[in-house]
Amino acid sequence: MSDLGVAIDYDNWATEKVARFCAALPPDQRALTTPGTMGTVEATLIHLVAAKERYATALRGTPPPDDAILETRTKDLDQVVARAQKLSEWFAQFGKGPIDVERVVTRRGADGSVQHMPTGILIAQFLHHGNEHRAQLGSIFGANGIEPPHYSAFNWGNELGKIS
Amino acid sequence: MAGPLDHVLRHNTWANVTLLEFCSALDPGSLESKATGTYGTLYGTVQHLVGAEQWYLQLLTGELLGRARIRRTERHSLADLIATTKATGTRALAVASTDDVARRIDVNEGEGSTVGVILAQLVHHGNEHRTQATTILGANGVEPPALSGWGYGRAAGMSEVGE
Q1: Which residue of B has its CA nearest to A133?
Q2: pTM for this structure?
Q3: A114 - beta bridge partners?
Q4: Is A155 contained in some domain?
Q5: For B96, which residue in chain A has the nearest alpha carbon?
């Protein structure tokens, strides 16, 4: 596996871990937020996974599935957890490569905008975006006295026995 | 031809430099801004970010890169932090293109990791603390710089708006 495949596997693990954590919260805690972040816990998680759907769609070059997560319609966090797991399966296969990071892909944004870019740029954004919104969730939890899940790559390595 | 992690690491360095240059243009008092739920002050956050990357590269290469060791107890100039992140970013690209992703690395006494996990940690850690920095800026009424992969693509002239 390439170093990129490792980073993608880590993103899958961290996103699923955070999604399960958020889905297990009571409704009042899902509605928490803190200044400087995107919004509530629920909105942030849905956006995180909805964007991952769009990155997968752009990399596959095929339309999103009927049960794709969308900011405009998804409300059920258990559905978000289930789709995060499905997306992990797809990204894990994708991460095994080979990945041509210079292949130009087309990405459609949530606002309908279209961009063309090398695959490597889209992957940089995908990894940035997941980390960014997980960090925002961590800030929301910390600001509201909730111990956040431990989701660093070192935690992942420990959990998988990559660090002995 | 770019290696698999090439754009991801280039984005990381570009975003670090963009954030540090943005911080350099702020009044010094703003560097002491905080927001609840984040790591600490804005300056403490960016210093920690760069110091950690310096440590990750030392783990990977055995070398201390940059002008000086970044210590939490010492105040380093933002210019020093920019120089260090550029040095670690360049070396990270070299490591990713030549090293064995499964090579075992000693982290602390009795603990080990791999090249791949440390590079994943570097990417995670950079994005996490840059996000905390932008959270601090936003919470204090300052519009933060754009640090996304899209921004990197535009800055590198490799992302085009299409139809």
Answers
A1: B131
A2: 0.95
A3: A108
A4: no
A5: A3
